[in-house]
Amino acid sequence: MDNALSQPASAKAPPQPAPAPAFQSLVPDPRLRMMLFLFLMTALFMATLDNQIVSTALPTIVGEFGQLERFGWVGSAYLLATSAVMPLYGKLGDLFGRKHVMMTAIAIFTFGSVICGMAVSMDTLIAARVLQGLGSGGIMVSIFSVNADLFEPRVRARYQSYSSLVLMASGAVGPTLGGTMSELFGWRSIFLVNLPIGILVLVGLALYLPYRKPQRRPKIDYLGAVLLAGAVTSVVFWADSGQMFGSLVAPESLGVVAIGVICAVIFYQVEKRAAEPMIPVSLLHNGTARLLWVVSLAGGAVGIGSVNYVALYLQTTTGLSPTLAGLLFIAITGGIAIGSISSGRLISSTGRYKIFGAIGAAGSCTVFLIFSQLPIGTPIALIGLLMLMHGISVGIGQQVPVIGVQNAVAQRDVGAATGTVTLTRMGGASIAISVYGAVLSAFMIGGPAIPGVDNIESLTPAAMASLDPATRAAVSATYAHAFSPVFISMAVMIGCGCLAACLLKNVRLPTGGTAKPSAEALAE
User: Fold this and answer.
1) Could you list the residue ranges forming a coiled coil in this record (predicted)?
2) Whether residue 339 sits in one domain with residue 242
3) Helix or strand run (H / E) with residue 408
4) Residue where one domain finishes, among candidates 192, 217, 242
5) 171, 261: one domain
């Protein structure tokens, strides 16, 4: 008798699971995909630009409305609302389909822009900025999730590098564009210009983006959404609490931290029991996702959080005017373009992303360590070269967290996972800004008295330029001494991101013809 037939039933090989279906793009036509991608990039540029464009128009706004003490809240309200709703939008996209969720976010943002342009007081403007932020958070999360529906994993890496370029471009042109439009057309124009752009994008998405119906019944985890928003809001609010309560460790500030911790603990317990959790518990337990969150948080801390401080360093230690200092940032923007496009193509061709996260973080860490040791009088060309190196490093690594986390989770959780990456990036920027400010202030206090300078922190670049050479050199030396630990703190933060990137598994992204069961299964 045949041996195979003589074996007992229990000895038969277990049935092999059916292979996962190959990736199928939501839009098979390549030309239509490109047109939709352009619509998505327009929406992304509109949402991210509004966080930068208002900066140079704020003095004009304050001159009209007064209430200088609420100056910072025009920006903070936008960031707070954007950060709080990001995970919610990611989950809503998974449950209801990304098309409707994204169009809703664009509509909310556009309506908020109109209210901003019609504001009659500072309170009205701040409230409208919150409304804008509620839409902006959905736009930024949904775009990366829609990209996951349009492009296979390897090709997606290249297109998400273009998305990163749009993010950087908005940051580069925002302040200049805001000042120009405010001067030529009035400050309200910086908000009202979003109306025709928003309508154009809405019409384009309504006509050309197909609706993919989710395969499960929508069940919203309302309690989880509220708790997560409370935890995130507490973190961002704490980052700004130093201005309100005098210190990040003031009793009131610590009370904000306590509220955030309580919300986070209860949130975790709720998610374990929720039928459709805001952030799946499996994602919270996913080691790859946790490491990528650290990489994303560190990337936000130096990629976004360092910009204002580098600009201040240039104007206080080198004597550059605000205009010339701004032009020097072209080196960072150009470097990001080089690094992002290069890494996107290499990830697309090799399927590997771990190495790019480690290289990018290590590069920025090295740059800031060098910055911390630069003496007064360092040639501007050398500073520009360091800024170019930093830009290339940011570009190389900034798309790694999104690509990695999307590859590490099931397709049904891509939206929620993408939202957590965007959230940690912005959270890292918010926290880092306050940390850098606290370090700078601590080392500015107690410095030697400078003849002819009553309050060094009140000196504008124009006022510094009018000082005599000896006094100006003393002011520059004081700032250089204070900035050294600031740059070291930046290096430490991005160094943590480098360590997390090195601990990632060296997985290979799947090709269009194969679907991924999990990141761990692809490890080699």
Assistant:
1) none
2) no
3) helix 400-408
4) 217
5) no
- Listed residues 217, 236, 266: the one ending a domain: 217
* Structural domain contains residue 261: yes
| 6, part of any domain | no
* Token pair belonging to 66: 């007064």
Non-local CB neighbours of 286 within 8 Å, separated by 6+ positions: 408, 409
- For the stretch 122-153, pLDDT in tens is 888 888 888 888 888 888 777 777 777 777 66
Domain contains 18: no
Q: Are residues 227 and 194 in the same domain?
A: no
Three-state DSSP class for 29? coil
Please tell me which residue, 342 or 281, carries the higher pLDDT value: 342
**Residue 64 structural domain:** 25-217
What total number of domains does the chain contain?
3
> Residue 239: its pLDDT value, please?
67
Phi, psi of 35 (to 5 degrees): -65, -45
Residues 348-368 pLDDT 10s? 888 888 899 999 999 999 999
In angstroms, rounded to a whole number, what is the distance separating the alpha carbons of residues 250 and 244? 10
Mean pLDDT of the chain: 77
Closest CA to 332 of 171, 461, 162: 171
Contact predicate 190/54, CB 8 Å: yes
- Burial of residue 262 (number of CB atoms within 10 Å: 0-12, 13-18, 19+): middle
Q: What is the pLDDT of residue 456?
A: 65
pLDDT in tens, 423-472: 788 777 777 777 777 787 778 766 666 766 666 655 656 666 677 777 77
Say if CB 335 and CB 375 are below 8 A apart. no
Which parts of 97-219 are beta strand (E)?
none
The percentage of residues in the chain with a pLDDT greater than 70, rounded to a whole number, is 74
Q: How far is 459 from 462, CA to CA, in rounded Å?
A: 8
Distance of CA 36 to the CA centre of its chain: 22
In whole angstroms, give the CA distance from residue 520 to residue 524.
Answer: 9
Residue count of the chain? 524
Residue 179, domain member (yes or no): yes
Please give the Cα distance from 11 to 13 (Å, whole number): 6
| 207 and 235 housed in the same domain | no
Q: How far apart are CA 268 and CA 483, in angstroms?
A: 39
What's the confidence (pLDDT) of residue 449?
67
Which are the contacts of 325, defined by CB distance < 8 A and separation ≥ 6? 311, 314, 315
Which residue in this structure is represented by tokens 């965007």? 422
Say yes or no: 209 and 296 in one domain: no
